[in-house]
Each structure stands twice: as C-alpha cells, then as structure tokens.
Design brief:
With 160 residues, this protein is mainly alpha-helical. The chain is built from 8 helices and no strands.
C-alpha cells in the first residue's frame, strides 16, 4: 500500500506520539543490560520491543497513524522495518534486518523463550544490543529528538 493511500485511510495525526514511543524504546533497550545475564529470553524480548517502538516512532513521525500501525504492523518487526523504509526511513543500522528476522517470528507469537538454539546462535546478541542502540539514536535524529531519555513513569507499551 502506498504511503499516500495510508494517509487517506487514516486521517488521525499521531505525530505527537513519536517521541513517547522513542523514549519507551530507549527504556526497554536500557532494561536489556539488567536482564541479559540472568534472563536472556527477557533481554531478547526487550530488544524486540525496543525495535518495534523505535520503528513505529519513525512511522508516527512520518504521519502514519497509531491505528494503522496497530492493525497492519502489529508486532511484526520485519513489516515494521519494511514500512519504515517505504515511509522514507533510510537510517537502519547494518544488521537490523537480520536481528528482526531472528526475533520477529517468535516476538509476534509471544514465543521468544521457545526460539531454537540455532536461531539464538545465529545472532551475536552483544552486537544486537549495539545495533538497537544505534537504531534508537538514528530514529531520534530523524524525528528531531537526539537524546531520548525515558523515566519509569513514562514507560508505556502504546501501540506495541
């Protein structure tokens, strides 16, 4: 579906939500450090949430409604990345597509703890953490919010 068609179908302007989504992405990303040593599945889940929220922040900033994201993108990280690129996002860090491809089938079905060992081993999760941090930074620049900082009282999983 072309982006102009999306605008016609969903006239709601949710651009104001972009920064909140990005703050929340940063908050979930921050949680990965604490979870990784004891709960690697939880850390992977937080990385997936951070990816989803960062890409949806980009889409919101480009005028794509939260309703459209909720209906069409849902928790599909690959679809979120593809949609963001179709909306003009060109700053995806190298390796993001590979991480999204590994996480997406399990994230969208809430089965990250059941990821096969070979899928887990196919990604360097330390590099993945850096890639997601880079994504958040690039989206922050793209939406004009270079240093997102999330407080516990601002954490929301809106639209995710």
């Amino acid at each position: 579906m072309r982006i102009d068609a999306i605008h016609r179908r969903h006239r709601r302007d949710d651009r104001h939500l972009a920064r909140r989504f990005l703050r929340n992405a940063k908050s979930f990303w921050n949680g990965t450090e604490e979870l990784a040593p004891l709960f690697p599945d939880g850390a992977r889940h937080f990385l997936a949430i951070a990816i989803e929220l960062a890409l949806k922040a980009c889409l919101l900033h480009r005028g794509i409604s939260d309703d459209w994201n909720r209906i069409h993108v849902r928790h599909d990280l690959l679809k979120a990345l593809k949609s963001a690129k179709r909306a003009g996002f060109t700053g995806a860090p190298p390796g993001l597509a590979k991480i999204a491809a590994a996480l997406s089938p399990y994230y969208k079905t809430h089965t990250i703890p059941h990821m096969p060992a070979e899928t887990i081993a196919s990604v360097c999760w330390l590099d993945a953490c850096q890639t997601v941090e880079d994504l958040i930074a690039v989206v922050g620049i793209a939406i004009g919010n270079q240093a997102p900082s999330g407080g516990a009282n601002e954490i929301s999983h809106e639209g995710a």
